[in-house]
Amino acid sequence: AVAAGEAGGPFAYIVPPDQRNPGEAAALVDVLRKGGVEIHRATRGFRAAGETWPAGSYVVFAGQAFRPHLMDLLETQVYPDMRLYPDGPPDPPYDVSGWTLPIQMDVRTVRVEDPFPAGAGFEAVEEATVWPGRVTGNAGWGWTLDSGANASAIAVNRLLVAGEAVSLAGPEGAGSMVVRRGPRTEALVQTLARELGVGFTGLRAAPAAPIRALEPPRVGLYKSWQANMDEGWTRWVMEQYGFPVDTLHDAEIRTADLSRYHAIILPDQDAESILHGYAPGSRPPEMTGGIGLEGMLRLKRYVETGGRLIAFDGATQLLIDQLALPLRNTVDGVPSERFFIPGSLLRIDVDTGHSLARGMPAEAAASFVRSAAFDVRGNGPEVVARYGREGIVLSGWALGEERLAGRAAVVRVPVGAGDVVLFGFRPQFRAQPRGTFKLIFNAIHGAAARVD
């Protein structure tokens, strides 16, 4: 492995500082480091692959013992088409078929084929640190927060907890996060920029109306008594990014005051399991029966009176059926001989003008694990993201991916005074696809905004 890496092809991978998500770039470096991969940081500028790279760039030399593991995580997977018998159903992989970390995490990495001097000027790294963000401009009124980084959600939540005034400003679709100057705001802004790698730009005057003030978000997370890893991943993501969550078991869905929540999340779980849970008599009574029709009616009233329901993957079918939404999962029930995606990274085209896509790139990667695609009927639903029309598979294996081409992947549907946000895929699968976390964060912060 050492000899192969030193010969080149690749010789190294570079993680440069110019990242949309600098915090996630540092997280990727730490994932590699924890797996035994040796990491270096450039202490001065250097030349490689015909370009000059700045000091502070992370460099991973391929000439090391863990080269196979390094390449497994950073390179694209191309999984073979294997069948149980000719023209039969797929021979499924043990687990997922595509997991390329830079694609999942929205991190720019540069593969360098040919050797370059790797002596002085590179220091070994024990733990990655994020590149500091910048605070620029005249902040007579306050600051605009760069919303491209996932860590901007942490910044917003910390500002709100500290009692600072954070708002969504401008038109619904193109709004930006703004922070109004207060007695202690500037010191906090400087600290957040330094620690999180997020940028703030000064505003001399108040931004254009409308301005919707944010409240500290209150999130309810449904937790079935039937063990659900997806709920655990969701809770972990919420905690890591500063969103306090209340666990809502079946009984809380039926009896708690749901109106106190800006948003309620239903993690991936099939509709039958959410509704009916364990059979009566198979567990203690409080752990059987699911949310039941009573719980579903209460969720329906919650939305109709102004709440926001967010559903991932399998849980979307519950809302489509029970709320009579004008959507259909176009790949539901298609035989595996014709459509099979066991766990791949797929390209989605994002409507960056939609409020739920604030700070997202025009193209992103969705973690699709036997997931859903929506056919939208009527003019009510708003499509936030669609599966690509070509070049859909970014990493992994897919049979019949043409069935997804152009289909809706993320949809917002108004229901009464509230709405539902449906993710056909899992934007937080195993807490890894950080490139789609922001869609969740936007949905929560948008629900916590009110018109001043």
Please provide a brief summary of the model.
With about 450 residues, the protein is of the alpha+beta class. It has 12 helices and 26 strands.
Description of the molecule:
The chain has 452 residues and is α+β, with helices and mostly antiparallel strands. It is built from twelve helices and 26 strands. It has helices at 2-7, 22-34, 67-74, 101-105, 151-161, 185-196, 229-240, 250-255, 271-276, 292-304, 316-322, 437-447, and strands at 12-15, 39-42, 46-48, 51-53, 58-61, 110-112, 122-125, 135-136, 142-145, 166-169, 176-180, 200-203, 211-214, 219-222, 245-248, 263-266, 308-312, 327-329, 344-350, 363-368, 374-376, 382-387, 393-395, 408-415, 418-423, 449-451. Strands 14, 15, 16, 17, 19, 20, 22, 23, 24 and 25 form a ten-stranded mixed beta sheet that branches. It has a seven-stranded mixed beta sheet with strand order 8-12-9-11-10-13-26. Strand 3 and strand 4 (51-53) form a beta hairpin. The protein is globular and about 70 Å long.
